Amino acid sequence: MARAFDDMPETRRALDAGDISMSAVRLLATARDADPDVFRAAEAQLVEAARLHSVADLQRVVAYWRDRVERERMPDGQDGLRARRRLHASVSLGGMVRVDGDLDPESGETLLTALRAVLDTDARSRDRDDERTPAQRRADALGEICRQWLERGDRPVVAGERPHVTVTVSADALRGAVGTSELDHTGPMGSQVARRLACDASVMRVVMNGRSEPLDVGRRTPVVPPAIRRAVIVRDRHCRFPGCDRPQTWCDAHHVVHWADGGPTSLPNLVLLCRRHHGMVHEPGGFGLELLDDRPVFRRPDGSVLEGRAPP
Q: Long-range contacts made by residues 30-34, C-beta under 8 angstroms, separation at least 24?
C-alpha cells in the first residue's frame, strides 16, 4: 500500500485530510492496479467519488470504472476477462482443501447466486445453537452445492461409473474400534466421520489379504434401498432435528442404531437428518437420538431432551 501511495497523490491528500477512509483507499488501490496510467488521469474524479459515496457505493463505482478500462484495453471485452479466469484446489498437509481463484463475471454471478440460495435456506432453518461464522456457513454452502450435484441422477459417467466421494474404511473402523479410514483425495479421516458417511451410502465389500492384495470384491449396493428411502422421506419430509426444516434433498437417512453395529435398515430405525445435524449426532459426546413410537427424541450431551415435534 505504501508503494502504491507514491502514484496516488490525490488519494494520500484526501486520506491525510480525513476526507476518505482506509477502506476507500483500498478500493482506489484496486482501481490503480487495473491500469496505473489511466488511474493517474482519473484519480481526482475517483477520489471525489470516494468523498461523496459510502464504501459500498464506491465499490460499485470502482467496479464500473475497472470494467470500462478493461473494455477499452481489450477489444474483446468480456472475453478478455474470461481469459483470466482461474481456479486452484489443493490438499494441505493437514488434510484441509485450499480453494483460490478468480471467476469471470458470468461464472462468478452463478456461484454467488447459488451460494445465496443455499445460505438463505440455511438461515431460515438455523437453530439458536448455531455458532458457525459467516465464512464457515459459506464453506458449508459450497460443500452442499457440490454434494447435490454429485447426487444428481443425470451426472455424466467417468471411467465407467458416476463420480462419487469414495471412502476406504476397515471393518474395525466401521464398528467404531481402532482401524483405518481414508478419503481418495484428502487422505486419512476419523472413524466417526467414516461411520457417518457410511450411514447412508453405497457400500462395496473388499476382502484383503494383507494391506495391498484384494482377494474378493463385491458389488456396490446402497445401504438404504430406494423403496425404504422413499418411505422415510414420505414420513419425515425434511430434517427431524428440532427446529430444522431443511428439505429432504439436503438430508441423509440416519441409522439410529448403525448398521455396522447390527442395526436394521428399516423404517423404525431410520430418520432424516440434514448433513449438519447428522454430523452432530455422530460426534463423540454429541447429541443422542432414539426413536420412540416413530418419533425421534434428541438428547443433549448432558442428557436433557430437546423439544420434539410431531411428523409434519
A: 30/62, 30/66, 31/62, 31/65, 31/66, 32/4, 32/7, 32/8, 33/4, 34/65, 34/66, 34/69, 34/70
pLDDT of 94 above 90 = no
- Domain holding 118, by residue range, is 114-122+132-155
Q: Please write the tens of the pLDDT for every residue from 200-212.
A: 888 877 766 566 5
**Strand boundaries in the chain, DSSP class E:** 86-91, 97-102, 167-169, 181-183, 187-188, 202-203, 206-209, 213-217, 221-222, 251-255, 270-274, 288-292, 295-299
| Residue 85 resides in a domain | no
Angle of helix 134-150 relative to helix 275-282, nearest 10 degrees, comes to: 100
**279 and 237 assigned to the same domain:** yes
Would the pTM of this model clear 0.70, i.e. be above it? no
Do residues 22 and 69 both lie within one domain? Answer: yes
In the chain, the number of structural domains is 4
Examine residue 16 and state whether it is found in any structural domain, yes or no: yes
What is the rounded CA–CA span in Å between residue 4 and residue 200?
54
